[in-house]
Write a structure and sequence with these properties.
By secondary structure, this protein is α/β, with parallel strands linked by helices. The protein folds into 3 domains: about 170 residues, Rossmann fold, CATH 3.40.50; about 200 residues, Rossmann fold (3-Layer(aba) Sandwich); about 100 residues, K homology (KH) domain (GMP Synthetase, Chain A, domain 3). About 35% of the residues lie in helices and about 20% in strands.
């Protein structure tokens, strides 16, 4: 996979970096709020300007004084700067030059990267005149814009492209090949830890403070030849617990990430066990037809708690293999009982911090993605439906259900249309029976299966029983 050049947006808090990020990317990806420090992790977006492609990074505001997450944010900014070919240094045209602007300018000059000074919030001729003072920072390229209103943003894009290497035509097939994986769950179940473990680097901030991740963060990744777009999302709380505008939009973005992905890894906390909110999140993924994997994190911590319950801590004894297997079986049985509506979803037990079970998880993700995109041959599908209908005939008020034809009309998830003589004869239990028969034959692990029923009068194409010769003999 050819790596796109990277452009990083940096600056102190609340100068409009996220607004500019959204403007340049053409989408409302970053959360924009007047509260400083809303952006904490690095946000990525693929951008194109007149055939030039580049990856754009939005970063948390550089705070040179001590504040919540200041040290972690600075690490994220440093990482983005190291990745970048071009750095956009954003300042606030209304505030004028601040002491922090001077200090950040000096830090950026030492990087040796291509630098563009972007004076934001310049909406009038008067502001343009006032922005002349920013030339004192000593940058060769200074451009005034209004990210909010889109003024002169095209000039900024032109300047960015001037500094990027020439590129060939856009490879749309490469984008289609990518597997979109969303990591979702309640706050503090280990989503960012899992992301960092998969990437083998500290890409997302990990903290015991719930709500550290605010945005849905997209990251390109390759594993064993499979191209991924990994999305780390904010923790999804119950509505009654969301009391802040920023968190509300974070939750909206998290649900949006579920709806856009191919496969959702729903992370559970093994210590706390399954909660009602976990079931709501899984239900949302099920309703939108994405591939689902239920990943049980912190399983080692759960085992340690059981050691304490059995009084093995003081003797420093470990649970035996039989006890471990019994615990795993009991936990799995209870979980399956509660998640019967997604019986097709595989369970994977992991420890994100101890890097256990990650290979199994990624292998399962690839397998689920393949099942999610399964296309069943029409002839095999009709043969299976014909046999299933013959083995378990359905009637209501003396009228027999006739299934004339079946065809798969869509993948992701597999969607099958049944043409029948009367849709009122197709009960929920009939659909469930046919779904089970299809799953038994074609697996479809990890993906939902949609069955759509339509009425048709095409009796000439009615599916016949398997033993046609026997039926003919009986009639004679």
């Amino acid at each position: 996979m050819k790596k796109k050049p990277v452009v990083a947006i940096v600056g102190r808090p609340n100068v409009g970096k996220s607004t500019l990020f959204n403007r340049l990317s053409g989408r409302k990806i970053a959360i924009v709020e007047q509260t400083p420090g809303v952006t904490r992790d690095r946000l990525y977006a693929n951008c194109e300007w007149f055939g030039t492609l580049f990856a754009l990074i939005d970063t948390g505001g550089i705070q040179l004084y001590k504040a919540d997450f200041a040290e972690e944010i600075r690490k994220q900014v440093d990482f983005a700067i190291n990745e970048a070919s071009v750095i956009i240094f954003v300042v606030d045209g209304r505030d004028g030059i601040t002491p922090d602007d001077w200090d950040i300018a000096e830090i950026l000059r030492r990087t040796g990267k291509r630098l563009i000074l972007c004076v934001n919030k310049v909406e009038s001729k008067k502001r343009v005149d006032e922005a002349l003072e920013f030339h004192a920072l000593g940058f060769e390229d200074t451009i005034t814009v209004s990210a909010l209103h889109g003024l002169d943003v095209d000039m900024l894009l032109d300047k960015i492209c001037d500094y990027l290497p020439p590129q060939g035509e856009k490879d749309n097939e490469e984008e289609d090949e990518k597997l979109h994986l969303a990591i979702v769950g309640r706050p503090n179940v280990g989503k960012s830890s899992l992301l960092n473990t998969i990437l083998k680097q500290d890409r997302a901030i990990v903290s015991e403070i719930a709500g550290t991740t605010r945005d849905a963060v997209d990251i390109d990744y390759e594993w064993n030849g499979t191209l991924f777009v990994l999305t780390d999302t904010a923790g999804i709380r119950r509505k009654s617990k969301v009391d802040e505008d920023v968190e509300y939009y974070s939750v909206v973005r998290a649900f949006g990430a579920i709806e856009r992905c191919d496969v959702a890894v729903v992370l559970l906390d093994a210590v706390e066990g399954l909660t009602e909110q976990d079931k709501r999140i899984i239900g949302h993924a099920h309703e939108h037809g994405v591939g689902i994997i239920v990943a049980v994190n912190k399983w080692d911590e759960r085992l340690n708690l059981e050691r304490e319950r059995f009084g093995l801590i003081e003797d420093n004894k470990q649970l035996g293999s039989k006890e471990r297997k019994a615990m795993l079986d009991e936990f799995t049985t209870d979980l399956r009982r509660e998640l019967v509506f997604v019986a097709y979803a595989p369970l994977v037990f992991i420890s994100a911090l101890k890097k256990k079970g990650i290979e199994d998880l990624l292998t399962t993700v690839v397998e689920v993605a393949e099942q999610h995109a399964t296309r069943i041959p029409t002839s095999e599908l009709n043969r299976l439906i014909r046999d299933a209908a013959f083995d378990k005939p359905t009637s209501r008020r003396g009228k027999m259900l006739k299934i004339y034809y079946a065809t798969q009309v869509k993948v992701k998830p597999p969607t099958i249309v049944l043409f029948v003589n009367d849709t009122s004869l197709v009960h929920f239990s009939t659909e469930r029976y046919l779904e089970n028969q299809i799953r038994e034959k074609f697996s479809l692990e990890g993906t939902s299966l949609k069955i759509v029923v339509r009425e048709s009068s095409g009796e000439e194409s009615e599916m016949k029983p398997r033993n046609r010769r026997a039926k003919k003999t009986r009639e004679e």
